[in-house]
Amino acid sequence: MPAAPAAPRKKAPAGTLYRGREGMWSWVAHRVTGVAIFFFLLVHVLDTSLVRVSPEAYNDVIGTYKNPIMGLGEAGLVAAIVFHAFNGIRIILVDFWAKGPKYQRVMLWVVVGLFVVTMAGFLPRHLMHVFGGE
Amino acid sequence: MTTIADPKAPRPPRARPSRLTTRGNTELYGWVFMRASGVLLLVLIFGHLFVNLVAGDGVKAIDFGFVAGKWASPLWQVWDLLMLWLAMIHGTNGVRTIINDYAERDGVRLVLKCLLYLAFVVVVVLGTLVIFTFDPCPTDAPANLLPSFCTA
Fold first, then answer.
1. Quick one: which of B74, B75, B87 has its CA closest to B45?
2. Are B101 and B48 in contact (CB under 8 A)?
3. Of chain B residues 31-90, which have a CB less than 8 A from chain A?
4. pTM confidence score
5. What is the mean pLDDT of each run of 10 residues along chain A (134 residues)?
6. For labelling alongside A24, which of A12, A38, A58, A63 has CA 20 to 30 A away?
7. Phi, psi dihedrals of residue A104, rounded to the nearest 5°
8. Which of B28, B64, B99, B139 to mutate to test the interface with A (most CBs of A within 10 A)?
9. Cβ distance A93 to A100 under 8 Å?
10. Nearest Cβ partner of B130 from A48, A55, A126?
């Protein structure tokens, strides 16, 4: 059986800001973290509303937030929020700062750096609260 | 044989879209709102996370008394109310954009957006009512679960 001719390689259009690489992947991450935060927000307003039912009902539900698995979930939630927040500032700079589009790629690495620093400050303290016992 | 159009000729008028996809400047205002509310939300949510997860004993310290103590201050009432409204509008508009991008069938888009707006109304109304009708010292609750100022 003769080998099928190789499909012509599609060349990605060049010169656009958001196609491939840092620009596109930060956009994807912004969407994914945004949707995750939104669904947590819906749940979080509902669980907080239990303060209107009774102190016992609220304490029961907030108690589940203190177990280790939920504690790791909270770390993930904070990570999503921190990325979304810093990358959001980057988006604003790309839109409004004259040199924003030129530096969008550098700014993503600044976002990643600030993310690492913020999480390095938050994680040990939070994990101590969650796993540190009484 | 057809010739290509003179590149300097004025463009022919664009065909009118079969259906109006946006009215006036609504999408522009939404775009501006996402940026303005985003900056405010960064401050509001980072403050919220610091006070609730980092300061003191973090998540371990959160209970009914903690919430009642915070909402005894008008600052945190306004803080949480602003956060609720801005985050819900920002998030709903973001998810609306995503539905518009990925749900290609008109019916699917309509259903998803109806569900989204229903969730928006329920959560915003419920959250607002909770902040404004909250009773930090319900009379039938055990005193050890209440903030200390209830017995004072």
1. B87
2. no
3. 35, 38-39, 41-42, 45-46, 49, 53-54, 57-60, 62-65, 67-68, 84, 87-88
4. 0.82
5. 58 59 89 96 95 90 89 94 96 93 92 96 91 70
6. A38
7. -60, -35
8. B64
9. yes
10. A48
